[in-house]
Amino acid sequence: MGWYEWSAQLLLIGLLAGAIPCILKLERTLAAVRRDRQALEASAAGLGEAVRMAEAASLRLRATAEGAGRQVAERLAAAEPMRDDLRYLVERAEGLADRLEGLVRMARPMAAPEPAAAVPSQAERDLLRALSQGLAGARSGR
Prior knowledge:
87% helix, DUF6468 domain-containing protein, membrane, transmembrane helix, transmembrane, DUF6468
C-alpha cells in the first residue's frame, strides 16, 4: 500500500466520522416523521369517520325536512277550503249585522220610553195604609 492509498483511506474515515452526527440527526428526524405520519393517518381515519357521520346526518336532516314540507303542504291544502268557508261566513255575518243595525235604528223611535205612571210599590202601599190607620185612630181618640 502506498501512501496515496493510506491518505485516501484516512480521508474516507474522516468523512465517515464527520457524517455520523448528520446521520444520527437524520435518523431522529425520520423517526419523528414516522410518528407524525401515524398520528396523521389516525387523524385522517377519524376525520373520514366524522365526514361519513356528517353525511349521514345531512341525509337524515334532508329527509326530515322533506317530510315536514310535505306535512305543511298537506295541512295547507286541507286548510284552504276551511279558509274559504270562513271567509264566506264572515261576509254573510257582516251583511246580517248591517241589516240588524238598520232594523235597530228604525225601531228606536218606536220604542221610545213613555213616561211611566208612578205605581207605588207594596211597601209604599203598606206605609200609606199604616199612616192612614194611625191618623184615623188618633182622630177617634181625641
